[in-house]
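wait is this the right file?? whatever heres the structure
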């Protein structure tokens, strides 16, 4: 757990982007507008948010010892284009659920999701020593599914996510190896970004 806490202050650097732990002061009108945009929130559990709600959300994630929540920033101009989080990070099963949002629509389809997912997978396995990561996705969210496949996630469950009949779960194992006590195919819950 102390390992997770130490990463609440660390920046993770990729080729074109960096990930910075999000604080309340990073909440802007623009960030808030992403969550209220129906193009962006179509496949998210969060469908609307005020600035105050968002500040509380970010504050709570920062305070949560089982969560790492990062803003995605472009290296060339420090623009905040989205978020990624590991939540919850489960110390018993050594696993985490991933959620990603590229909120800046100008930044869609430029490979940022793929770059960020690849970076967070390496961090989760090489630094946090997790055994697997999982996520829920709607099959109609084709860019997301494609991005997760490219980062190495495989479909593990035909079961629908309770709130979405067209959803399924994907998982990636550290070094491609399923742990001996293989986890069940449908993880518990996933919260919105
Ligand atoms: C889904 C989402 C994360 C994808 O992010 P992205 O940065 O646009 O994704 P990428 O650029 O890495 O591309 C992933 C796939 O999108 C598609 N894509 C990318 N560029 C494309 C283009 N110019 N034309 C058509 N398809 C394209 C491809 O399938 C691509 O895979 P490829 O590189 O093999 O071609 C982003 O659109 C988003 O955050 N949407 C709103 C929130 C959301 O749905 N989050 C996911 C919840 S599970």
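ok assuming it is, sequence goes like this
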């Amino acid at each position: 757990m102390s390992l997770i806490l130490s990463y609440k202050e660390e920046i993770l650097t990729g080729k074109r982007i960096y990930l910075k732990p999000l604080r309340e002061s990073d909440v802007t009108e623009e960030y808030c507008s992403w969550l209220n945009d129906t193009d962006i929130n179509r496949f998210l559990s969060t469908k609307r948010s005020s600035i105050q709600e968002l500040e509380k959300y970010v504050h709570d994630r920062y305070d949560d010892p089982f969560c790492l929540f990062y803003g995605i920033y472009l290296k060339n101009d420090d623009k905040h284009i989205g978020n990624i989080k590991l939540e919850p990070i489960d110390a018993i099963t050594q696993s985490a659920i991933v959620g990603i949002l590229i909120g800046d629509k100008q930044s869609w389809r430029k490979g940022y999701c793929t770059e960020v997912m690849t970076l967070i997978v390496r961090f989760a396995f090489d630094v946090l020593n997790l055994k697997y990561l999982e996520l829920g996705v709607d099959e109609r969210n084709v860019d997301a599914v494609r991005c997760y496949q490219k980062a190495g996630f495989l479909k593990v469950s035909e079961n629908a996510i309770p709130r979405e009949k067209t959803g399924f779960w994907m998982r990636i194992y550290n070094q491609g190896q399923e742990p001996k006590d293989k986890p069940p195919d449908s993880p518990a819950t996933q919260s919105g970004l």
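The mean pLDDT is 92. so i think its the right one actually
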